[in-house]
Amino acid sequence: MPERPLPAQEDAALAILREVFGFERFRTYQREIIDQVIAGGDALVLMPTGGGKSLCYQIPALARAGAGVVVSPLIALMQDQVAALRQYGVRAAFLNSTLGAAQARAVEEALLDGRIDLLYVAPERLLTDRTLELLERAPIALFAIDEAHCVSQWGHDFRPEYIRLSVLHERFPGVPRIALTATADKATRREIAERLTLHEARVFVSGFDRPNIRYRITEGGASAREALLRFIRDEHGGEAGIVYCLSRRRVEEIAAWLEAKGLTALPYHAGMDAGTRARNQQRFLREDGVIIVATIAFGMGIDKPDVRFVAHLNLPRSLEAYYQETGRAGRDGLPADAWMVYGLQDVITLRRMQEASEAGEAHKRVERHKLDAMLGFCELTTCRREALLRYFDDEFTGPCGNCDTCLEPPRTWDATTAARKALSCVHRTGQRFGVQYLVDVLLGNATERVGRWGHDRLSTYGIGTELDSAGWRNLFRQLIARGLLAVDLEGHGGLRLTEASRPVLRGEQDLALRERVRTRRRATSVSRSTAFEGDAERVLWEALRHRRQELARTQGVPAYVIFHDATLREMVERRPANTEELAAVSGVGARKLAAYGAAFLETIAAHRAAAGTAGDEPGPTAPPGVERKR
Fold first, then answer.
1. Three-state secondary structure along 446-475?
2. Cα 583 from chain centroid?
3. What's the average model confidence in pLDDT over 395-410?
4. Alpha-carbon gap, residue 313 to 330, rounded angstroms
5. Burial level of 6, CB count in 10 A (0-12/13-18/19+)?
6. What crossing angle do the helices spanning 361-378 and 344-356 adopt, rounded to 10°?
7. What is the pLDDT of residues 191-213, one digit of tens each?
8. Domains of the chain: residue spans and CATH
9. Single pTM value for the model
10. Residues 96, 98, 102, 103, CA torsion sign
């Protein structure tokens, strides 16, 4: 393992930040958190993905005597996390089932000898008697519990073994602990503190906002996958992304279809054999421009910073899940998209899954509430970011200027009369039929089933000709989202009236709903993350990415482990001519400067020479920032 760089300044934390990781200054709360842990105190940290959580335990682990032990829930990602740290010159290792007996013994001996700075361990491995006894004999600087929301039994990523991590407080009372998550409302934060015995911990909440992510949601239908293809081709050609689907079959279908359209798309779900699943994940992490199509089984702890989009082809189960999954985009701080298309069938399917689960009634009630909040979020006519952050008790006054409802405010229409017709139809047909049947009655479709039930003689038969079938389905979906109708899951998806529908039925309350958005072809555009003013900048950008990929392939590591996109972008903007200028680029630490400085300076010099020969030496350009109003 490489030697650990030692800080040469009195301020150890700042020295490590600059000399090891190549960053000039701390972000919000990082300094306070790091000082708390270095001093031996516990901390509970809520920080958005991409906000720099990892440094909050990595720097204290380097500053304190002993090794930092990181509890990480996904074995598959530990290797890349360790590889990334080693690029910085940090002596990192992992202990998990992928190691042979001799390899595991070598790591254990290095830990006992004080030759490891950071050790990554899965919670299952940590909780074995052998590992706990090993740690009791080793010098330990701190315990970091990553993805701490997994401790919540009400959460979307619950891992039962996380509850047992309170043993760290019992067996290592003098070792500071830091629990970190990007997704936890107030109730979940209280649960984390309770279950991990972090009652004395300082709580740091730096907010949930991800201003670089643009939120976009649209209605679904038969053309959903065509809309997805247009979105990728028009805005994210050749870039990495994640597409989430509700079912394994849908994952396989969409991955195969995107491949047939000329994109590099790989499936990922729990039903695949472990080898294929691992290979697909590795390709996604290590290659540029790969799209992974997955169920929610994929993604927790993903450390890939250059995911430029996360797309949902189905409605997520909750706003917590939506925030967690969309948060995998744009971890490097460059512009990214959270794009979703959904439909009424998603709601019915998810509610059936909730009712079919073996969870207790209290848990089901919470899950129903979360799905209602998710559906209401989709039907918003106001700023999405403001509503999303309000859900997590995070103060934000919109409009944000970077979501679809801010950029293209939706039009509304007076749906009072149509809603009364729909609600009346539900009542007169006995509150037992699904949406399509109700639409047939409203449109006066003389189907065999309508005739058999005698509903062609109802007063609501044929009174809805002002809307077409798609318009009525859209209306019913919004009535469900507003809580005016409920889905009777035991009644095979039939709709029933709620108490909230009575004022509308009686004519006591008006109702304004979103106008149905018809699919429009967007003009082809360049990704906001790689937009440059001139061709010369784009040429240099591609040359730097190519050099990075060559170096990564030689070492068998992901390209972002060499340098993040944000660091390459700064190289394009500054075009450093020597080692001193390159060292000033954010993300270029001492170890990486020594290892890769010459290669990247050579690439930049070759570009400068070629541009000079062509008489087109460009001047520095400013990065296209994400405008944000407060």
1. CCHHHHHHCHHHCCCCCCCCCCCHHHHHHH
2. 31
3. 88
4. 19
5. exposed
6. 170
7. 899 999 998 999 998 888 999 99
8. 12-205 (3.40.50.300), 213-407 (3.40.50.300), 412-514 (1.10.10.10), 532-613 (1.10.150.80)
9. 0.73
10. negative
Angle of CA points 346, 207, 386, to nearest 5°: 50
Element (H, E) at 120: strand 118-121
CA max distance for the chain: 88
| Alpha-carbon span 465 to 227, nearest angstrom | 28
- How far the first Cα of the chain sits from its last, in Å, is 47
Token readout for 211 is 């201003």
Locate tokens 């050609």: which residue?
A: 237
* Residue for token pair 């990523």: 157
Residue 220 pLDDT greater than 80, yes or no: no
Mean of the per-residue pLDDT values of the chain: 86
How would you label 394-413 residue by residue, b for 16+ Cβ within 10 Å and e otherwise?
Answer: bebebbbbbbbbbeeeeeee
Work out whether the CA dihedral 185, 189, 191, 195 comes out positive or negative. positive
Q: Are 323 and 183 in contact (CB under 8 A)?
A: yes
> CA gyration radius for the chain?
27
* Cβ pair 49, 211 in contact under 8 A: no
Can you tell me the mean pLDDT for 22-47?
93
Mean pLDDT of 436-449: 95
Tell me how far apart the alpha carbons of residues 435 and 415 are, in angstroms, rounded to a whole number: 17
Q: What is the pLDDT of residues 58-96, one digit of tens each?
A: 999 999 999 999 998 877 677 778 988 999 999 999 998
Instruction: For 479-510, write each residue's pLDDT tens digit.
Output: 876 778 887 755 566 889 999 899 999 999 99
pLDDT over threshold 90, residue 450: yes
